[in-house]
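Re: that chain you flagged

S.,

Sorry for the slow reply, it's been a week of failed gels. I finally had a moment to sit down with the sequence you sent. For the record, here it is as I used it:
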Amino acid sequence: MKCGNCGAENRPDRRFCLQCGTALAQGCSNCGSTNEPEARFCGNCGQPIGAQSANDRDTGAQAGHAAAAERRLVSVMFADLVGFTPFAEERDAEEVRDTLQRYFDIARTVVERYGGTIEKFIGDAVMAVWGTPTAHEDDAERAVRAALDLVDGVETLGSGIGARAGILTGEAAVSPAATDQGLLAGDLVNTAARLQSVAPPGGVLVGESTMRAASAALAFEAAGEQALKGKQAPVPAWRALRVVAQRRGAGRTEALETPFVGRQEEFRLLRELLHLGARDPRPRLVSVTGPAGIGKSRLAWELEKYIDGVVEPIYWHHGRCPAYGEGITFWALGEMIRGRARLAESDDADTTRRRLIETVDEYVAEPSERPWILGSLLALLGLEPAPQGGRELLFAAWRRFFESIAQRGSTTLVFEDLHWADAGLLDFIDHLLDWSKNTPLLVVTL
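Prediction finished late last night. Pasting the structure tokens below so you have them in one place:
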């Protein structure tokens, strides 16, 4: 076959010229016959060249039906950098690119940590959604928690760079089969983007539906009605301030809770160490020291609220070292075991034994280790005498219990009022840190 462009001879089965790459023949989508490059209709069946065959149309219709949009209740977050233009003007292009990449990494990590989906990156803006493809009852709360974390995390990118975010909850047209861009559409999306544009630097503005859905676990303040570009009527908005409870309001106090200020760097460090365990599993110790009333317990409470909100499995244990009393050497450790087994201090011996058996069976994967660990936990809570082998055997069994939990996800042990701790508890903490290997354990001592 001769090419009509350059005149080169080609084999009859070639579709493109070997010399210039020009198309040599066109295949009919209906009957498969080859036609000259300039043909507008198939010489065999008369089908217009380039038109879909009946089979293709049916297949396309089925695909379109499968990807048809449906209405869903979603929470949409837009976040944007503030101060990035002057930052970029003063720096090399490669440094700007690296900073943007770090920002995108932070955004993706934070959104996924709270169970959301990145819909798209637009310049230095991020659009994320909760409620599709998987919906949860607390999607609005997750979105606000993620926005607060994202705004806080952006501060580490460089001096003068901040972020702001806007979140709306409502119905949108969702395409479940779509990936990346094109996941959802509707006025909700446009309005959320406009709301983000009027948020103050470092602030998170939300709509009324989002505020009502998340108010059990977060504190908000009224931000007034916002005149948004393209909207005929003002949109009422609230500013998200802080997390005040665990997920869906669990543990929220009725008393007035003062804002958490002056400890952001310490709080950020603890969060980073929590998630670092998944990438670099090993035990870590953080000691928080200071005079009474400076906020050590508050820091632990903020960490507990944070852990309860993220999707990543993190196992929380908290115990207090009492200042006086009998049999208090390992009291803090006993409180941690009771919490893991969902036991109250007032539960009777039968209930305690039954729940400990259930807990050991749940978390200790190796059946041969269960009797040894169970006996040591029963001894810790005073239900059985200590097994022969002395304190080292008890330490090893308690350590193996926490290591077994840590095989499921990062595990945190918070020892409060450690200045009252007996030497025996301090020895166990040393044993835990010295002997645990390749285990994501975070030990926090206050």
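What I noticed first: The CA atoms of residues 329 and 422 lie 5 Å apart.

Talk soon,
D.
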